[in-house]
Amino acid sequence: MKHLLVIGDGMADLPLSALEGRTPLAAARMPNADRLAAEGRLGRACFIPEGMEPGSDLGILSILGYDVSVRAPGRASLEAAGRGITLASGETVLRANFCTLSEGRLLDASAGGVRREEAEALCEALNEGLAEPELRFVPGVGYRALLVSATDLASVRCQSPSRALGQPLESVWPQGAGAERLRAVMERAHALLEAHEVNEVRRDLGESPANFVWLWAPGVPASLKPFPRKAALAAGVDLPKGIARLAGMTVLEVPGATGDAETDLAGKAQAALKALETHDLAVVHVEAPDEASHAGDPQAKVKALERLDAEVIGPLLAAASKAGWRMALVTDHVSGTEARAHLPGAVPVALWGPGFAPVREGLAYDEASAERADLHFEAGHEMMEYFLKPR
Questions:
Q1: Three-state secondary structure call for residue 371
Q2: DSSP summary character for residue 382
C-alpha cells in the first residue's frame, strides 16, 4: 500500500474577526481537503504534548511517529541537518532569525522576508565584522540563518522570536549559562546590520530593515531512529528536510520550493508522485500558511490554504483515487494569526483511502468539524502507526 502525507504548516487557527468569526480553514475554499474529510476519517490530534512550547520541530517529529515527550533534538540541530551541516562534538548550533528591531523591541520576527542574496551578504558581514573564529553564521532559507559555535551554548534558555515580539529586549533576553555571550553577539550584530548597505536599500524600497539577529533554539549533534518505511519528503525549508535526513528518508530536490508564498507547490506534488514509484510513503510539507500567520495576515493565509488545496491536495488526491492509495492531511500546530505565534491545542487530521471509511456525515476539513468527529489522538505520535497499519 502506498501512502501520501500532506503537512500544511500552521494551518489551524482561532476564529478571526477579519474573517467574520471564521478560522482561515473555515473561510478558505478547499474542496479537495473537504473531500478527504467527508469521504475518510476526520479527527484531531495533539502533536505538541501538554506543557511543551508549540513549534514545527516538535509537531513534525510527532506527525512522523516520534514521541517528543521522551526525546526531541533541538530545532537548530534539525535545521543544521537540513542544510547538510555536520556538527562536531562540543559544537552548538542556534537558529538565527534576521529581524526588525526598533526602539529596543522586536517589530518583525522575519523582517518582512529576506531574499537569499541579502541573507548571504548579511551573514558574510557578521562573520567578518564579529571576527570571532569560534562563531560562524550560515545563511538558510530567507530570513532563517544558523549560528554555529565551537563553544558549548546548549544550556542557554532562549525565547522564540514570535514570543519576543513587541516586548522590551530586557524582558526577553536569553537566560542561563552563556546568555551574556549571546547577548553581546546580538548587540554587536545590531550595530553591524543597522548600517549595512542591504538595509539601506531595503529602507529605500520601503521595506523593513533586517537590522537585528535573534538567536534561539540551541542544539547539539542530533540523531533519530530510522523511519520504519521507505519514505521521501518534498519541502522548501530546512527543518523538515533535516528531520527527513536524520530519519533516513529521501529528500526530494524541487528547485522552485522556496518556503514562501510563491513556492512551487505543483513541483512538490509532482516530485512526491514520482517518488512513490520507488518509495512507500511520500510527504509534502508546505510552509506558507504558517508564514502568513506570523505576518498577521488573514487574507494571505486563506490564499495560501486555497493554493495548497488546488496545487497539492487536488493532484495528489486524483492520483490516490486512481491508484487506490491512502492519503492524510495534517497540520503540526495551531498558528494564531492575531497572536502571530504558535499556540497549544489539538489540530485537524484527515485520513483517507482503503480502511478509512467515514463515521459521520457532513464534515469539512476545519477545526469545528474536527472537534465533532470521533477520531482523536491524544498522543499525536500514534497517528502515523495508525495511518500506516494494514486494515
A1: helix
A2: H
> Which three three-digit cell numbers place residue 33?
481537503
Domain range annotation of the chain: 3-73+223-388, 92-219
CB-based contacts of 386, cutoff 8 Å, min separation 6:
351, 377
What CA–CA distance (Å, rounded) separates 381 from 379?
Answer: 6
C-alpha cell of 49?
A: 504534548
**On the CB side of 244, how many CA atoms lie within 13 Å of its CA?**
25
Distance in angstroms (rounded) separating the CA atoms of residues 355 and 126 = 54
Q: Give 48-104 pLDDT, tens digit per residue.
A: 999 999 999 999 999 999 999 998 888 999 999 999 999 988 899 999 999 999 999
The residues, ordered by sequence, that sit 6+ positions from 380 with a Cβ below 8 Å of its Cβ are 45, 46, 47, 48, 49, 59, 62, 63
* CATH code linked to domain 3-73+223-388: 3.40.720.10
**Full-model pTM:** 0.93
29 DSSP 8-state letter: -
Closest CA to 45 of 319, 326, 367: 367
